[in-house]
Task: structure prediction
Amino acid sequence: MDLRQRLILTVAILASFVPFLDGSIVNVALPAMVDELGGGIVTSQWVLDGYLLSLSALILLAGSLSDSLGRARVLVAGLVLFGVASVACALAPTAGLLIAARVVQGVGGALLVPSSLAIITSSFSGAAQARAIGLWTGFTGVAFIAGPVLGGALVDTVGWRWIFGINVLPIAITLLLLSRVRGGHEKTSGARVDVIGALLGTLGLAGPVFALIEHERLGWGSPAVLVPLLGGAVLFVAYLLWERRAAQPMLPLALFSVRNFAVGNLATVFVYAALSLGPLVVTLYLQQVVGAPAFLAGFASLPAALIPLFLSGTFGGLAGRYGSRWFMAVGPAIGAVGFLWLLFVQRDFDFWWQMLPGLLIFGLGLTITVAPLTSAILGAIEPARSGIASAVNNAVSRVAGLVAVAFLGAIFGGALDLEAFHRTVIIAAVLLLLGAMTSAIGIQNRASAEKVAVETPQN
Result:
């Protein structure tokens, strides 16, 4: 790489590192937030889902904005928006204002991830591009690992507000470096923004999520629950119908005509819903029931996070050689065994044998799953469409997590205790087994070797 390419890669890594870090750092701070601001499990759900809702609903639109307005311009907008929202989160005096700031943070995060990747793909080619994307992926993985430990340390020392305040420094450095980048971030000629699709998709997701979170407090019979639930469902159907006829759709539904892409994304729904439930309930249980400090609760996530860091490349290579099908079937099944091991957790708690082996087994299953899953999905689509295919899969995984967290209150039954913990890990295990069966039945190794060109329908 020359100096300019190194600078571009550094900008891309820093710009995406911040939202990826934020996605993992918040879990460990939830109990401290609720203790100060109140609201119980509903506040926890909205702090997570407010961010995921705007992020998942807008990440595809952000890709269009990056093409139509220019990648650097969208990246700057995302950095500024994320930074301002982070300061607002750090200063929020009430739970409502914190949640509102988290929604804005999600908008900023949606602008950052596709733009940072787009700058890489437009500035590198061939083997250099593959290496740059690999470095980008590796550093975002570090963000997931560092998040819980760093968050726990901040919560236990200077307070939960600093998990948001700390974002300002890397954002400022990224903006400074970005001001020195020239070229490689121009507009794409003829690109258009699917505004109607963005509005329908956002409202179609927001209504049911609101109903799922608030039904325990208001009741299913409340108009404040029924209207958003039914109205959101209607709007989401309208969103899908609109995407079928849009000239430049935010969600190219034609991609789902490819078997491995469709089946892989269905498996993604099950796997990532489990990933949103299982690790979250472990972190909350350690703090709220066991009474562990935030740092130790975050540190407990390290074993499961380190295994993918060292072995994901190995299993990705094996999937490339032998096909993804059985890795995608065996990996989630092993992960399910890891979650079921957590049923050994009892009131007389012992982390070393009741929880740690399960977390390690889960980490191994996750490692076997993720790289082959990505390979099967992207390998089914021609290279020219891999960017939008990746964005769609990213959005699917975020929506799966969004809906899973929305069900958290119903799963807990109002409060987190040992029985609720056991219910949650059983549900996470069942979801992983559904992902395993979906992959075993639906994924075709032959299809992964034959890249299928998919054309977006035009009016």
About this structure: The mean pLDDT is 83. The CA atoms of residues 327 and 365 lie 9 Å apart. Residues 126-157 form the longest helix (32 residues). The domain at 1-180 is CATH 1.20.1250.20 (Growth Hormone; Chain: A;).
